[in-house]
Amino acid sequence: MTLPEQIHPPINRSRLVWAMGFTQILAWGSTYYLPAVLASPIAKETGWSITNVVGGLSWGLLVAGASSPAVGRQIDRHGGRSVLAASSLLLALGMLLMGLAGNVATYYVAWTLIGVAMAAGLYDAAFSTLGRLFGEGARTSITGLTLLGGFASTIGWPVIAGLESWIGWRNACFVLAAAHLLIGLPIHSLLIPGSTKQPPHPVITESPRASELHPKTTNYLFLLIGAMLTVLALVVSGISVHLLNVLKQLGVATAVALAIGMVIGPSQVLARVAEFSIGRNLHPTWSARVGVFLCLVGLGLLISGMPWMAFVAIAFYGAGNGILTIARGTLPLALFGPQGYGARMGLLARPVLVAQACGPIAAAFVLQNFGASALLVVMCGLVLLCFIASWRLPTTRRTD
Fold first, then answer.
1. Where is the Major facilitator superfamily (MFS) profile domain (predicted)?
2. Interatomic CA distance for residues 299 and 4, integer angstroms
């Protein structure tokens, strides 16, 4: 048990997770999932190329990667309330500037603000906040948060599409800015415990992790986890952007391909429910192995190109991705403990976010020059390496 739970009034975890889950839906919907809805209207109205418009997200992810380590250290020192509140302010400013953008340069300045906000407001910062508050007991809260956050595209896409159709993309950006300012900021400021309710550094009173590990072992495990998460982010981002094109190249009709793509969201949510209810007793290393294996099976089955098999494949792939999102937060906590958890999450986030920015570009190159089957074979190879690497991770505390 960690010191915060011993000397401070108990925190209402359910209320906190629901509150943070709502702001995660708002944050993901207006950042990572935004170009899928607004890229075409922005390009059509401004005359900018679709590449320049979508490139704003890649730039934002690179900025987020550069900012993440500093964000993690800030959460370690002062808790997550001020960081998450700042993310709401930055998202409001970024969306406001995007709506006002009259040229590409201003548009990219908006994405720069949004990029810093992504580092301070998406999963990595939220996981770090929960780890800061609950120490080793944060796993259930992290799982619950990802369960709610999994509805970001399901809710965000139709809401943003409706706003764009009703009042245009610029006014849609203004509405999102107001939502961050009037909803996200108060939630982060009022419902997340502040630094005065937490010690300057979480103190572990029993079962320390990092202190039990030899420094070389700690560094090895950290680099191994970082490499795994980075490669997986490269694969997931590439598949997410190009899935419909991959299916079309494999001979799947457009309408069927869209239906197949819709399986990802529900399968992610179902897998997270299973993790929350059944998998909570598994060590996060085993959860990570299961997640990687499901992604590997899904991508392998997809190579066949058969529509009915593609539905099964994407269900496996989505379930694996859903579990891996949780493992990204719980695995470092289980292996290294809560001390310095925010800083570790920030360091891990940097290459992951860079990979998310580069994955669609690399996948597009392979897809254009070698075809969908070759892309899937390459992706399977990368995920297989991650699966092999996962067996180098301990499932118990190690003292070597």
1. 16-398
2. 43
pTM of the model: 0.80
CB 238 within 8 A of CB 379: yes
**Helical packing angle, 104-121 and 81-100, nearest 10°:** 160
CATH code of domain 211-390: 1.20.1250.20
Structure token digits, residue 151: 């509805």
- What distance in Å separates the CA atoms of residue 88 and residue 108, rounded to the nearest whole number? 19
Query: Which tokens sit at 260?
Result: 């197949």
Q: 3-class SS at 204?
A: strand
Tell me the helix, strand and coil percentages in the chain, rounded to 5: 85, 0, 15
Q: Is the dihedral of CA 232, 235, 241, 243 positive or negative?
A: negative
Q: Which residues contact 156 (CB under 8 A, 6 or more apart)?
A: 25, 28, 29, 30, 33, 34, 37
Residues 6+ apart with CB under 8 A from 170: 99, 100
The 8-class DSSP code of residue 2 comes to B
Sign for the CA dihedral angle at 332, 333, 335, 339 comes to positive
pLDDT tens-digit series, residues 158-191: 888 889 889 999 999 999 999 999 999 999 999 8
Residue 286's SS3 state is: helix
Contacts for 67 with CB less than 8 Å, ≥ 6 apart: 115, 116, 119, 120
Length of the chain: 400
Query: Mean pLDDT, the chain, as a whole number?
Result: 84
- Write the single-letter amino acid at 203: V
Residue 381 has pLDDT above 90, yes or no: yes
CATH topology of domain 10-197: Growth Hormone; Chain: A; (1.20.1250)
pLDDT at position 33 is 82
**Shared fold status for 10-197 and 211-390:** yes
Is residue 211 scored above 60 in pLDDT? no
Where are the extended beta strands (E) located within 246-348? none
Return phi, psi of residue 148, to 5°.
Answer: -75, -45
How far apart CA 285 and CA 122 sit, in angstroms, is 23
